[in-house]
Every structure is written in C-alpha cells, then in structure tokens.
C-alpha cells in the first residue's frame, strides 16, 4: 500500500475528481451564512444545499471539495474512541442533476483501487448497499467487486427528515484480523457492524427522493450524488495508524503537548485520552476562531468555551498547571498550511483569543472547585452520598466541569452522582439550543418547474418603476405550475419587470400588479431570484392572473426610494471606514432595507466615539457635496483596473456594473441607487457592535427614517428636561449635575443612618449572650441588613470576643439571610460555620456556604427566618 501524507491524500482526491470534470469548491467558513438550521458547517453537503434543493442552479453541476467541518453532538466521546472528533475534514464529490449511480460507483472504485490513485488492494475493500437498491448492488459487481465483499444493510438510507434523501452505499477497509475486537461468531463481526476491524472510509448517497412534510417520499426531479470521505479516517489507513490520532494530522500536536508534561503518549489509556482530547479541541478552536467565532456564553461561542475548558481540565490531568493551549496553535497551522494558509495569517488573533479565554477560565476553575467542595460537604449530600443531577450540570454548564471530572472528585469522598438527573438537564439544554436556532428545515425540496425554466426575465428597475405590457410567463401556486390564479399566494415570472430581486444585501421590491383595465389584481410582497436567475415575484392574489396575458407592474416608489438612499449610503460608509480605519478594513456583509441600513466590516478593534463621529462627518460631507451617482457596465478586469472595489464573497461575471459616487466611491454593484448623493438627505450611525472575531457592525439611518429617529430623541430629551425642571436644553447639564450631587449627599446620609441603626442593633444584640451545650452564643434578628452588613457586624463581634458563636437573621427586599460565625478557637474540622449552616438553612428553605469561621445562607421564606434564629439554642446544644 502507498504511504501518503494527509496533504497528499486530500490533493489526490481533489485532483481525481477534477480530472472527471468537477470544479474544486473552496472550503467554506465553519460559521454558516444565512442558514439558521445549522450551528456549524458539519459536512460537505451542508455548503451545497442551495444546489441540492433547487434554490440555485450551479455553474457546473459537478463539484468536489475538502470541507472543514465541526460536529459537537457527542463531545463526551472524543478521546474515548478511535474515531470521534469535533473538527474533521470531509472529502466529497457532488453531482447536481448530472451523473448518477453508474458514474459515482465506477469513479469511486477507480479512485480507490487504481495504482495511479489510492491503489488499495480490492481484497481489502467491502461494500454495503441498501437492500432494495438493486442497481447499486449490480453496479458494484460490474466494476469488479466480488459478491462475498457485498453486504446488504437496512441502515444504508440517508434521510435528514425533509428534502432530498435516498439510499446510500458505504465503503469499508479491512484492517485485518489483528484489529478485530469481537468474537468470530459475534453478529457485529461484519463490514458495517460495531467492530474495529472494518473501517468505514466513504459514504456515497444517491439523492433520488424528496421527503415531503407529510412523511411520504416522491421521486426527485433532478437526482443528485453526495459523497463523504473523512480525511482523518482514510489517512489512518494510509499511515497504518491504530486510530485517527496516530497520523500526521495529530501526532505533531500530541508531541508538542508532551513537552509540557512528564507523561508520554501511548503509556496509559487514561493519559492517552487526555492527549487526544487536547489535540482534537485545539484543532477545532484554531479553525473556528480563524473563521470569526469566539468563545462566549451562547450558541457556537458556548461550544468553543466548553471545548477550551475541557482541554484545560485534561491538561491538568497531565499535570499542566500553566496556560499552554495557545502554544499549540502554531503546530496546528503548520500541519494545515498547505490547504489552509488562513490559519497562519490569523495565527496572532487565534493565540490572543485562546490565551485570553484560558486565563479567564483559571479564575472560573477555582470558583468551580470551591462550589464542588461546598456541594460535597453539604449536609444533604453527606447524608445521601449523592450529588444531584442539577448540581452536576451546573458545574458543567457554568464552570466547564465535565461530569466525569465531577465523578472523580466526588468519588474521593465516597459520593456518587445522579447521572439520570444530569442527562435530563443536558437533554433540556440541547432542546433549548435547538429551539434557539429556529424551526426552519435544514434543506428544502426541489421545484422542477423553476429548475427547468430558463427563459430570460429582463430587469427594468434601474430606470423604470412603473411598466405596462409585462407578459406573465410562469405562474405557480402550492409549488405547482398553473395557467391561472384567482386568489391566494402565488409566485410569478414576467418577461420584464421593474421589481428588484433581493441580492447583494438589498431587499426585494414590493408593489402592485394591475390588469390591462387598470384593476388591481395582486400585491407583490417580495421579490427574490429563481434558481436560474430570473426575478421571482411572491404574490398575494385577489383578482385573475393568467399565463400569456400582459399586466401593469408598479413598484412601491416611496419604499424603493428609501432603499436607494440607504444603498448609496452603504457605499459611502464603506469608503469612509477605510479613510478612518485604513485600507485593511473591507466590507463583510450588509443589509439595505427601507427603514435602515446595516453594514458589517473587518476590524479587530471597537469603533471609538471619535471614529464614529469621523465616519458620520465624512459621509455627510459627501452627501452635502451633491456628488453625481452613475452606473456603467464594463468588463470585469477593466473595472478592477479602474479601482472599483469588489466583494471577496461575491462571484462576478465577465461583464459587471460599476457604481460611482463622484470621484469618492467606485464599487461593483448590481443594486439600486439615488442619482445624486444629496437625495440621501443626512446620515447617522445609531448602533455599533461586534458580531464576531475581527468583524464589527454598524446600523445607520438616512432620510425620513433619520428624521423620525431625531424627532423621537427630541421628545425623550424634552421629557427628561421636564422631569429635572428646566426649560432650556442648555440648562439641563448643570441641573442634572446638581441633582446628582444632591442624590449622592442623600445616599451618604442614608448610609450613615443605616450604619447607626446597625451599630445600635448590634450593641443590643451583643448584650444578649446565652449558654447552650458547651458553647456561649449570641443570636437575634436585625432588620434590613444585606450579607455584607451582616459580615461587618460579625467582624466587630469577633474583635470584641463577645461569645463563641454568633447567629444573625435578617429580611431585606423580600429575601432572608442568616449569618453564622464561630470564634477562631471554637471552630474545628468537624464543627464549624461551614458544616453547621445547613441546619439553619433547612428551617427557612435557604441554601448557604462559606468557610469554617463564617457562613451565610439565603432564601425567600421571609416568614421563617425568626424560626431559624429561635432554633439556635437547640442546634448549638446538639453540637459535639
């Protein structure tokens, strides 16, 4: 067998399918674009959905890719098994309505067995097929696969619950009997069974069915091919590795980890697990951060935070007590540099984010350990010898403690964990996360009529918003092609239209459709692009529409004018940001709506107030300069040579439209614009936020939208002026400062009164010393104290050596608090504030914690705090 590096395997796969007429698609960002159904790009086909469901027709129906992917549904298994990874690369070849089973199977066998390519020995390869897929079964035999190497398996059917689906066929590599971990007569001892001998290396999906919402399956108009070969798995075969981790994709990282610890990889199964977890997680973190994601408390950021903390905790298992993860990122970049040079380009930022997050976790980890120790020592846990699933999940969710780590710590004290309760909490969290991502289906179904409709629809909206004699060429209702519609929702394509279809950040036009007699027959609620590029009108019909008839199409001109103002303003903003931030800043996205504009741009730093003012000043200067806005079509290269700005995320044709605002801004753009910058009126930024690593967003207003905003601001200012009692705005600052000073003085006076009240109450309390058992104690209620004020009283009690034990109860703002303090010479390891506070807390339904000398419990049962204090004598008497 050949011995290939991971880079060679990846490139050989892509080169093979390129030789078969496929376009090599670049690996898309791990952060999904316009797809709320996905948290991460998790497969090669995830980036092809728009082609598979017929939303867009690809330039070339044959595509291949090496797609970086993240899957985090079973993070707990990473490090425990040979194959589980959170980050991986999926090699794939795709056909959208072009070749099908015959070519897919023939080419797969050629790539796998030809000496020119992978060169596997056919005797080492086994195939599984769907039992009813007779074509695939016979095609595999026709290319040379022996019957004894073919297995039928009911699991060979690919279905994500809606949209394209169909039977699949899987390729397995026989690693040899020495890898077998099941008995010869075990029912799982076959390719596709749960065993280590037969390794799945390729899955080929024959996407020939549509899974409809009602649960039925129908033939798909355009049959597709979707394949997935895990790079890490196939590389493990070429490099004779027992697991994915003994390959050139992981071993350099593992060897780097060894430098920070006295352990060596391969010495112990538990130790190896920690090495694997760290190596996998730092790959995921490096790629995700490079693509703009950052650790946070929600969404994909929460996933990254969890992975980083899991890696840190496993570093501690290896005896690594210092921050070390960022030191591994250059090794990740070095391994992947041949295909992912952006890791090297973004390395500084990756290291900064990882360092910052790891340092932050150090403090959180200490807090988590304190909470864990508090939970373990609580009377309830000590009595039941069980940590609740809720507490175990809190340790995981808030502090990043994997449940197995909590188990290890608890086991040292003879404590178990309610794992069923923990799993219940975990399931509920996953359900919350799923709902937060929305309920949109992950892939739609194809519409054959739209896919096959190729007739041109001419856009006239650059110069006309009111066009008569527009012929209705295609009409659909309920996803079916029809000849006429009298009411309800429908979609329509005309031979010409003034309605702009959503593209390049600009929303689609709305408006009205009239028949030739002038009768209003439909509202246009939105306009988008059909799969082959025509402007597709989304209609609410209440008159008759008939294919072949001509209609009068009229765009909502007021709304369109607002959109134009905001679109031209985005061009001015783009240029102004470069003026302020430098040439390194470029557009990363936009939304041009009638009521506001949103502009995303690259910047590692937050915009300062001064920079915001500078951008506003520049844009408004260009508006007031009455710059003419012109558009001209020209060859792409000529446009670029002339200095036109192009978006890296867009694909442009040979001829492009260049929009200029005087000599200030020149950009490639197919959208609508005003004819002169003065039409924008005025510009103001209303919001500036960060949306990811290195990407910022501003929201701004123009025209009448800005007027409404300023009018609202003025009304709020007038309301504030009325409240503070001034007539002129110029007097408001001074009056507000005076009120602030008066408020501070009142706060100070109140604090002094509260302190006097507390001191007087403490003096009275300190006079009331009683005996119970072997202790002298002081107990009582002091109203309206918070825990901080109670601790101050306890400090005075201890300094004055009033008694052995202090008990203070208080109610404030609907909450109860109880403080328990021990004199220094009266607290022991068995009897102290920390161990006794629970006895008081149970009486008023509270929870508490602290140290041996002082502990505080809090709760909401305000009526029972007196009962808790009254029980002091009994509780203290029982202390041995």
From TrEMBL:
GO terms for biological process: alanyl-tRNA aminoacylation. Gene3D superfamilies: 2.40.30.130, 3.10.310.40, 3.30.54.20, Bira Bifunctional Protein, Domain 2 (3.30.930.10), Threonyl-trna Synthetase, Chain A, domain 2 (3.30.980.10). The keyword Protein biosynthesis applies. Residues 729-763 form a coiled coil. Zn(2+) binds at residues 567, 571, 669, 673. Pfam families: DHHA1, tRNA-synt_2c, tRNA_SAD. One of its GO terms (cellular component) is cytosol. InterPro entries: aa-tRNA-synth_II/BPL/LPL, Ala-tRNA-lgiase_IIc, Ala-tRNA-ligase_IIc_anticod-bd, Ala-tRNA-synth_IIc_core, Ala-tRNA-synth_IIc_N, Ala-tRNA_ligase, Ala_tRNA_ligase_euk/bac, DHHA1_dom. Binds 1 zinc ion per subunit. Its EC number is 6.1.1.7. The keyword Nuclease does not apply. It is found in: Cytoplasm. Consists of three domains; the N-terminal catalytic domain, the editing domain and the C-terminal C-Ala domain. The editing domain removes incorrectly charged amino acids, while the C-Ala domain, along with tRNA(Ala), serves as a bridge to cooperatively bring together the editing and aminoacylation centers thus stimulating deacylation of misacylated tRNAs. Catalyzes the attachment of alanine to tRNA(Ala) in a two-step reaction: alanine is first activated by ATP to form Ala-AMP and then transferred to the acceptor end of tRNA(Ala). Also edits incorrectly charged Ser-tRNA(Ala) and Gly-tRNA(Ala) via its editing domain. This is Alanine--tRNA ligase. It comes from Xylocopilactobacillus apis.
